[in-house]
Specification:
Elements lengths: L26 E4 L3 H11 L3 E6 L3 E6 L2 E6 L23 E4 L3 H10 L9 E3 L2 E7 L5 E7 L3
Parallel strand pairs: 1-4, 5-8
Antiparallel strand pairs: 2-3, 3-4, 6-7, 7-8
Length: 146
């Protein structure tokens, strides 16, 4: 006879003995020019400048999101122990909620923002990807109305 433990779906998931993670701090992007990135996020997307230590570091925010911008020479940009350089770009991205995605797209096109794709529509909502000046992806997302 096997002793299979059945779990009640109302039971909370098992937790580590000590909570190691306090919560989300923010998202770090590697950038080539911190001043240029601060200008992009504040003037193009309406973020607030929280702090800067040029040319190495800046932090901008919108809502509950802190975006940490690490330039060359920042502690968050140093090479990995094996020598691999941290670089901008890739496909993982921050997702920013907007109210009217088509209007947002039109405004950002007027401002010269680079789009990775055209607007996509799915059951969860509408989305499009743009690049910051260093090629870091940003997804603009309008949730589906429920």
């Amino acid at each position: 006879m096997s002793s299979t433990k059945q779990t009640n779906q109302k039971d909370p998931p098992p937790r580590a003995k000590a909570q190691l993670v306090e919560g989300l701090w923010g998202v770090r992007y590697q950038v080539k020019d911190v001043r240029r990135s601060i200008e992009f996020y504040t003037s193009m997307l309406g973020f607030t400048l929280d702090m800067q230590n040029l040319p190495a570091f800046g932090q901008v925010s919108v809502g509950n999101l802190k975006l940490v911008l690490s330039g060359p020479g920042a502690s968050g940009s140093r090479p990995m122990p094996g020598g691999q350089q941290q670089e901008p770009g890739g496909w993982n991205r921050v997702v920013l909620e907007v109210k009217d995605l088509p209007a947002c797209i039109a405004e950002l096109r007027k401002r010269g923002v680079h789009f990775r794709n055209e607007m996509e529509v799915g059951p969860g909502g509408k989305q499009v990807q743009v690049d910051d000046p260093d090629g870091n992806p940003i997804e603009l997302f309008e949730p589906a109305r429920r």
